[in-house]
Structure formats: C-alpha cells, structure tokens
Specification:
The chain is an alpha+beta fold. It has a single domain (29-177), classed as Immunoglobulin-like (Sandwich). It contains 3 helices and 10 strands. Strands 1, 2, 3, 4, 5, 6, 7, 8, 9 and 10 form a 10-stranded antiparallel beta sheet that branches. 18% of the residues are buried.
C-alpha cells in the first residue's frame, strides 16, 4: 500500500510548476541607452590632444533572473576607424532592474585627424555619427544553476560634436544563452 501525502504532492507540484516556468521563460535581450558624454580631461599626445570622457549608459535587465558579468572593453568608431575604447568593469544586475553605468573612455585625436575633412563637415552640421561594439559575457543564475551567456551590442549614436549632446541613437543587442 502507498502512503499518500497531500503536502508532498503540493510541494512536488509547486516545484515542477516553478521549474517548468523557469525553463520555458524565454530570455530577453537587455537594453542599453547612452544618456550622456562628459569630458573629464585632455591629455597631450604631441602634436595631438587625446580626450578622456565618461559615458553614462542606462542598462535594463528585463529578465526574471540576476546576471553577473565579467569586465570587457567597448570599441568606439568614427567613420569606420577605431577612435578609442571604454572600460566596462565586472559587475552584476538584479532581475527586472535598471542601472546607470559610468564607463571611462579615451578618444584618440590622431584618429580624428585622419578624417579631418569629414570631422569639419560634421562640426558644421552639428551632427557626428559614432559607432560602438561590445561583447559582454557572464552568468545568469536560476536557483543554483548558472547559465553562461554572451551579449553582442552594436550602437549607432549621433552626437553634437560641439556640446557632446546625444541627438539620436540606435542600439541592437543579441543574447546568446549557453545551456551546457
């Protein structure tokens, strides 16, 4: 004869439902939005002056699980030429949350000098197009399971080259989740 326990049955059903919900929940791509660019200093790199800036980026984790990510670097391009990079420090983000990241970046003016004609035209129009790419890798924790992920982000940002105001932006993030 089998001993039947409603408590065990309910706990088992709840555990099965929770596991099924977590496993069937489709992960969503995080969102990124450049809020501001602030110049922090100029460094003389004779005969040019490199610029150090802080990029303030608003990041949203729309998923129901917390994420932990490793440090990486964002590459910043102007007219297809690598202009500089921004350091993304390792960190974490709670489920369904937003946070501001302050990314220090160094932009090399020697690279801008190679595109002087285009830069002058952009300054005259007060619109400069910058592109950025970054790959962020980390782990999303579901109970005691850790699932590795990789997010590839491509950003196309139009800024006012005089005041560094963000005019327009388009961001695309592709999330790849590893099940092993």
């Amino acid at each position: 004869m089998v001993n039947w326990s409603w408590t065990s049955a309910l706990v088992g059903a709840a555990a099965a439902a929770t596991t099924a919900a977590l496993m069937s929940a489709k992960p969503k791509d995080p969102t990124f939005h450049l809020v501001s660019i602030n110049i922090t200093s100029f460094k003389l790199s004779a005969p040019f002056i490199d610029t150090e800036v802080i990029l303030t980026v608003h990041v949203t984790n729309p998923n129901a699980v917390p994420i932990h990510y490793s440090s990486t670097e964002m590459s910043i391009f102007y007219v297809g030429t690598l202009l500089g990079s921004a350091k993304v420090s390792a960190g974490s983000q709670s489920p369904r949350s937003c946070q501001l990241l302050h990314l220090p970046a160094r932009l090399k003016s020697v690279e801008l000098a190679h595109h002087a004609v285009q830069l002058m035209a952009d300054v005259k129009r007060r619109e400069m197009r910058l592109d950025a790419t970054v790959d962020i890798e980390g782990v999303a924790r579901v109970v005691w399971w850790g699932h590795r992920f990789k997010v590839h982000v491509e950003s196309h940002v139009t800024v006012d080259p005089v005041f560094l105001d963000v005019i327009e932006q388009e961001n695309k993030a592709d999330l790849e989740l590893f099940v092993t």
